[in-house]
Model the fold of this input.
Amino acid sequence: QVQLVESGGGLVQAGGSLRLSCVASGRTFSSVASAWFRQAPGKEREFVAAINWNGGITVYADSMKGRFTISRDNAKNTVYLQMNSLKPEDTAVYYCATAPYSQVTTREARGERYYDYWGQGTQVTVSA
Done:
């Protein structure tokens, strides 16, 4: 059984920063791709960023590029999302996910179906 546990969410003012963490267990984490998605109230879940198995390749949604950074520490079975210059429209529940694949270079890696295990999510609220 794979478990993903997110943490690090909270309330922050616009322009501030947060770092989310996702700890994985029950899978050979170091050999698979991981990603962050988010879901705002009343909206569909959307892709944020993904990282390949060794951290050498990262991809981002256009609206997050330059503000968010995804990284991983395989020794700690953890993937991170550093979020800077936060805006009120970044308010959402943020989810981490892992895939049964190692790479993130395909278009499919930006879709939910690419990932087979999901965390419960952590709330991020950005006030104006």
